[in-house]
Amino acid sequence: MRTPIIAGNWKMYKSIKEAFDFVTTLKDELAPYTAVERVVCPPYVALTSVQAALAGSGVDVGAQDVHWENEGAYTSQIAPGMLQGLVKYVIVGHSETRAFQGVTDEMVNKKAKAALAHELRPIIAVGESLETNEAGETEAFVGKQIRAAFADIPAADLANIVVAYEPIWAIGTGKTATPEQANTIIGMIRGVIADLYGDDQAEAMRIQYGGSVKPGNMVELMSQPHIDGALVGGASLKVDSFVELVKLAIEAKGL
Fold first, then answer.
1. Which residues are within 8 A (CB) of 58 and not within 5 positions of it... i.e. 6 or more apart?
2. Phi and psi for 240 in degrees, rounded to 5?
3. Rounded to whole angstroms, what are the CA distances from 207 to 22, 56, 73, 122, 135?
4. Which of 53, 163, 169, 240 could be joined to 130 by an S-S link, Cβ 3.0–4.6 Å?
């Protein structure tokens, strides 16, 4: 069985002190729940303190993005080598970076390959707009994103990659794809991976759902056979709700 992964994307929230205090409490609350992988993705400035606070706890740390170049004149960007040894995961292709920073499918592919080359595990985010969804073009659009993201990535690297399906229209809006809708699209993503790498690799790939995930819908989402976890925004910013999500994931998967 694929080990579920619950990752909290803090976006642009929490100061260094707030982040440290938060994970100091969170790690104790999460200690009993080792059946799922637990990840927090704070802002860059808090990574060092969060990593130190979580050392030995079993809770992993991720960064919210990464550049593909090892170094250079890229003001405001973070090179993969700067994150090496500091985080385990890095989110690439989140819709907010695509929308606000001009990140393209080609860039997502370069970011993923750069992360892997530096022993970082990319969480590759894909998802469609409301317009694309309502036009019935979700499968074609997301399938294209997946094919572009995985271009020239060898099968040997797949065990270190997680995919996150996040419909843009459900992020921070309170709207959520129905569990059945999410499962259908994630199943389609698994089918694209199968086309590229074979059925065994596709069955092993962990694919999360993201988009207004909260305790109230977690069990229904995690009960779906293709959904292996969640990339969580707002609900990951409070200790009690994040812990509840982890507990509910374990319950839904019967772990």
1. 30, 31, 34, 38
2. -65, -40
3. 27, 26, 34, 12, 24
4. 169
Per CATH, domain 5-253 is 3.20.20.70 = yes
The Cα–Cα gap between 222 and 186 comes to: 12
pLDDT digits (tens, 9 = 90+) for 28-79: 999 999 999 999 999 999 999 999 999 999 999 999 999 999 999 999 999 9
SS (H, E, C) the chain: CCCCEEEEECCCCCCHHHHHHHHHHHHHHHCCCCCCEEEEECCHHHHHHHHHHHCCCCCEEEECCCCCCCCCCCCCCCCHHHHECCECEEEECCHHHHHHCCCCHHHHHHHHHHHHHCCCEEEEEECCCHHHHHCCCHHHHHHHHHHHHCCCCCHHHHHHCEEEECCHHHCCCCCCCCHHHHHHHHHHHHHHHHHHHCHHHHHHCEEEECCCCCHHHHHHHHCCCCCCEEEECHHHCCHHHHHHHHHHHHHHHCC
Q: Are the beta carbons of 179 and 217 closer than 8 angstroms? A: yes
CB 195 within 8 A of CB 154: no
Sole residue written with tokens 């843009």: 168
* Closest listed residue to residue 185, CA positions, set 236, 220, 136, 131: 136
CA proximity to 221, closest of 169, 193, 185, 190: 185
Could you give the residue numbers annotated as active site?
A: 94, 166
